[in-house]
Amino acid sequence: ELQKKAEEAEILKMELQMLETERVRLSLVEEKLMDVLQLLQQLRDLNISKRALGKILLSTLESCHAPQPGKAHLFEVLDTLQQELAACELLHQEPVEQGQSPQSLSNALVISC
After folding, report:
1. How does pLDDT run across 63-72, given as a tens digit for each residue?
2. Which end of the chain offers a freer environment for a tag, N or C, measured as fewer CB atoms within 10 Å?
3. Coiled-coil regions in this chain (predicted)?
4. Number of separate domains in the chain
5. Residue 64 near residue 80 (C-beta atoms within 8 A)
6. pTM over 0.70, yes/no
7. What are phi and psi of 12, to 5 degrees?
8. HEC states along the chain?
9. Is 3 part of any domain?
């Protein structure tokens, strides 16, 4: 009876450890997703073109085509997307001057990213 209870306790302990590991992993994914969404919001506020965003997304998916061993594929994609978005030159440029037309701004966005 004691042996059975000890085995059940060990199984419960392992399950709890697995749940804790999964909770940490999900927290990391959530944090990375929030970073990506924040960068997307910033780029949207800067009126980045859909074409430029599409290129960033396709570049990310292409670089994550084959998952690396030992790294969660979802986290790898989010991490790469976050890096690609953060590297977008548009986020690091000075504010647009008053005299610049929306069309020239749009063209600058396509080229810069």
Report:
1. 887 666 655 7
2. N
3. 2-46
4. 1
5. yes
6. no
7. -65, -40
8. CHHHHHHHHHHHHHHHHHHHHHHHHHHHHHHHHHHHHHHHHHHHHCCCCHHHHHHHHHHHHHHCCCCCCCCCHHHHHHHHHHHHHHCCHHHHCCCCCCCCCHHHHHHHHHHHC
9. yes
N- to C-terminal Cα separation, the chain: 67
Quick check: is 75 in a domain?
no
**For residue 90, is it within any domain?**
no
Provide the residue range defining the domain that includes 50.
1-64
Q: What is the dihedral of CA 41, 96, 110, 30, to 10 degrees?
A: -20
Task: Report the phi/psi class of residue 70: left, alpha or beta, with left for phi > 0 and alpha for psi in -120 to 50.
Answer: left
Mean pLDDT across the chain: 81
